[in-house]
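Many introductory courses stop at the sequence. We go one step further.
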Amino acid sequence: MEAVRAPVEFTLAELWMLHDHVRHVAAESEKARWPIASKELNDQVALAILACEDGKLGAYTLLMTDRELMVIDHWIRRDMKIVDEGGASGKDILLKLFRARRELAYGATAEGGEDLSYKTALDRKTYEKEAENADTITDDDADEGADEVAV
């Protein structure tokens, strides 16, 4: 079974910060509840940096598992900053991780206003569309009745 992934967009400066701080191997003496290193994540970050540099892109979206999000969470601190190359902030990266973790835990959410699950948002959209169609049918029926009276 493939792991569930959430999309997280990082700027090129943020990708460089991840590369600088997130490890691909952990010392054997480090015992943690969550993995604190990931070669797969390191590969993703390296390839994203190359794509940005070669393609002149300002940002790149990584599809990340909960495990990969926790690895980054372990290494990136809120007060970290990079001032060159457009700048990067540990706080901005962490907020992106928190949103992705929320999405993995609760499903996709609608931005702005209420925090709806994807299913709830679709149900509401379907209901509103049905209500709109019902109004249209009612208006058409009323117009037909008005034509009959006028004749």
